Structures are given as C-alpha cells and as structure tokens.
Amino acid sequence: MFTFIDQCRKITAFHWLYWATRMGMGITFILSGIRKLPGIEFTILPVTNPVGAFFHAMHETGLYWNFIGYFQIAIGFLIFSNRFRVLAGLLMMPVTVNIFLVSVALHMRGTPIITAMMLLGNIFLLLWHYENYLPVVKRSIFVQVKKAGTEH
Q1: CA dist 75 to 10, 31, 70, Å?
Q2: CA-CA distance, 103 to 43, in Å (whole number)?
Q3: Cβ neighbours of 50 (radius 10 Å)
Q4: What is the pLDDT of residues 17-36, one digit of tens each?
Q5: pTM for the full model?
Q6: Which of 20, 80, 82, 95 has the smallest number of Cβ neighbours within 10 A?
Q7: To which H or E segment does residue 141 belong?
Q8: DSSP secondary structure string, 68-97?
Q9: CA distances from 112 to 22, 48, 104, 108, 122 (A)
C-alpha cells in the first residue's frame, strides 16, 4: 500500500490535489471556527428544527463552543504552515469525524456528502504524510510485541 502512495506522490496531479485539499481544509476550518466565536450564531435555523436545536444547545455551552471555534481556527492556520502541516492533519481528524457524525446523526440533507468528502480529504492528507507516523506506529507495535513475549 505504501509503495502505491509513494507512486502517487510522484504524479503532478496528486500534488495539485494535495495542495487543493490542504488549502480547502484550512480555509474551511478557519471560516467554520470564526462562526463559533463569541456572539456569533452558527445557524439561523429555529430551535424547533433538530439541527437548529443542536447548534443552539452547543452555542449555549459558551466556553466549550468557543474552544471548538478557536481550535478549528488554530488548525486551519497550522495546515498552511510547512512546519506544522503533519500535526494539523492529525489534529483535524477528530474534528472532521465529529462533523461527519453530527451531519449523519441529525439527518442533514446533502451535508453528509460534503462532510464525507472532508473526512476523505483528511484521510488523504494523513496518507500523504504516512512516513511521519510510521516511527510511532512501529515503536508502539514493537513495544507491545516485546511485552507479550516477556509475559510467558
């Protein structure tokens, strides 16, 4: 699988897709984060609508809602930086998964398709930088295998 990813990384079209995904995710995270800053409602849907009720309840949490917004803005800026782009991809994943799950759980028309594309984009960014995560995974697996061997 990793040789396939390495081959794809040699193709110019995939480089363009990588940059477009990275920039698109960054802009999306920044704009979405701004919508969660103090005093800004995320949606204009009434609380009688399940989506409106959910986002109104999230907005009413105050500090937690603002934290999500600031976190998204920070990740959005980190993805633009060459130094932190790998970390940003990792930090994006739980946020992207939650956005997708909320859109599915609340039966938002059309939104699960968009959020699924965001999730796939995030997975694409993680796969693009797979070699950065291998040392952590290899070490973790090695430690588990070594512990399992010493328990006998």
Answers
A1: 27, 11, 9
A2: 14
A3: 13
A4: 999 999 999 999 999 999 99
A5: 0.82
A6: 82
A7: helix 130-150
A8: HHHHHHHHHHHHHSTTTHHHHHHHHHHHHH
A9: 20, 21, 6, 7, 15
